Amino acid sequence: MTLGLERMEVEVADRDPDTIKQEIDVARDKLALTVDSLAERANPRRIADDVKSGLLRFVKQPVVAVSLAGVGTVAIVLVVRRIRQR
Length: 86
Known about the structure:
By secondary structure, the chain is mainly α. The protein has 2 domains: 1-42; 56-86. Helix content is 91%, strand content 0%. The N and C termini lie far apart (89 Å).
């Protein structure tokens, strides 16, 4: 087990501090992009807009529009019949 630790110490000791700093800067930039991306995806307004546009696309399909019109017509007929029966 100590042999692996010694090898790691040699590898760390052989690395140039400027190279390490560059790697840290690259990792920091990638992390910042990831955080920004997650913040954008989790934005409640964006989520609501996406759901709204998806729902509108779905409702505008001819089959769905006709089905909703049929359900609306049945609902109106039932309400009118109930009112007349009173």
